[in-house]
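Example protein was shown:

_____
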Amino acid sequence: MNLLLGLDALLENRSVQDAATQMRLTPPAVSRILSRLRAATGDDILVRNGRRMVPTARALELQSEVRDLVARAEAVLTPARDFRLADLHRTFVVRCHESLVAPVATRLSAIVASEASGLQVRFVAEKADDDRDLTRGHLDLEIGDAPAPSATVRSRVVSTDTMRLIVRRHSELDVDHPTAEAIAGALHVNISRRGRTHGPIDDRLFDLGLRRRVIATVPAVGAALSILETVPAVTALPERVAQDLPSSLVSRPFPFPLSAAPIALSWHARHDNDPAHSWLRGVCTQALAPTTV
């Protein structure tokens, strides 16, 4: 069993150091496990390729089977017990975009304050680049775009949103149905944590023979709304976020279909059979259920 756990961690992380962190062992201890695995299987399992370790063909063949065996063993060895929220002593770390923090944090905090004195939820900001924090155990749950398919990371889409046009109250675009031409003629503020200046709005306008002018790209919703309160510009926000705007701003529909990226929950497969983690996923799913303006 220890060799299977070590093999699973090594294939998942492809690094002795990261596997040691996940298993809460020292790197020399994991190096000894790798040596024993090589002796037991007659295969190198991981080989060095420059500064990185890469799995052998045999190791790749074993990866999904090993993950399944480890998950089944963990389920068998986990004591059967009734889950009681009041008895839970744990800190969950959740990462999500700032626009999703409010509905999730509000619902979770209300439950924790009244029913789970031993539970704490810590929210951390999104990073610009994808990383392996779920795999390494640094995160319990990620909320946002669905990650690339993986044998070890689960993902479930829980909501989708329609995008809304955010305009200044009493401006020319503060009408029931703004036209594409009027939208193209406005100054635009983009919201992108990766600094992208081109997006679906540009594609829809291009199909109509139109172009827009982006005057600023910011990584946060609050920054975009602050700009709109002082500059005659517009931006786009998901429906759920557009329900809580400063009094000087209003949301209006786009004249063409424009959907936000689906919202997904992602977690490591090691949490599949964890009742507390299942509860966390359930509360977040309810908090992110589709809403209407």
User: Anything to note?
Assistant: The chain has a mean pLDDT of 87. The first strand starts at residue 46 and ends at 49. Residues 57-77 form the longest helix (21 residues).
